[in-house]
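Hello Y.,

Per our agreement to keep a running log of every chain we model this quarter, I'm adding this entry. I've kept the format consistent with earlier entries: sequence first, then predicted structure.
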Amino acid sequence: MPLIDPKETIAVLKKYNFIFNKRFGQNFLIDAHVLQKILRAAELSKDDAVLEIGPGIGTMTQALSEHAGRVFAVEIDETLIPILEDTLSGCDNVTVINEDALKLDIAGLVSRECPGKKLKVVANLPYYVTTPIIMRLLEEHLPVESITVMVQKEVAYRMQAGPGTKDYGALSLSVQYYSEPYLAANVPMNCFMPRPNVDSAVIRLSVLPEPSVKAQDPALLFKLIRAAFSQRRKTLSNSLKNSPELSFSKEEIDKAIRTCGFPPVVRGEALSLREFSALSDALKGGESG
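Predicted structure for the entry above:
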């Protein structure tokens, strides 16, 4: 019987006297319908190599093994390794790696184990490392084709939010710079053991071959984005002027805002990624002119 059955999960936990470690944010999936939604969103085939981050006791890993060609399951908690060796004993295409996903040499893993391929990341991510892991996968230009992950519902909503919405912010823009997000499913808290305090969601990020906008200076673009949302209630002009990361004068900032055709009192939350890129280029041009 597969581990997704709650009775099997409980039996494995009892067999190994496993104690949940709050430090690692462990919440194991026990709902077969949700598992199927994750697999559909990931669009796996036997040609695919999958990186699973945080396999836990191997519930999703078993299913990934059936749908993908290779599965690399990265688990930070060493107490789970003997359990995974047991539950995945029949999965010949799974490699368990006892490492921290934030430190793992992913490019090296791919070049060594499946050269020329791009990974599909599929994971039930611990909430406490969701953003660092996703941004590492996106920012470091790793050989990753897509990222299908279970995350805290509000984080998923932020990733795919557009201008003028309450969820829109720096995370939205950072994720959408590198990828195309698709919200695949909402997942209530009773689908996990132990039950978390918040609902979750499944989101797929299709990694773009090139960034979605071509800013002259991407580092400046992200400084502007961080500054714009660090003081959300202020006008864009004041937010940029007050940022310790930026050295532009108020006159330079106001001129760039006018050049882009934005209202003088516009707030950062009203600007799209393309508009932030235009503002970045206007400031860059003024800086070099």
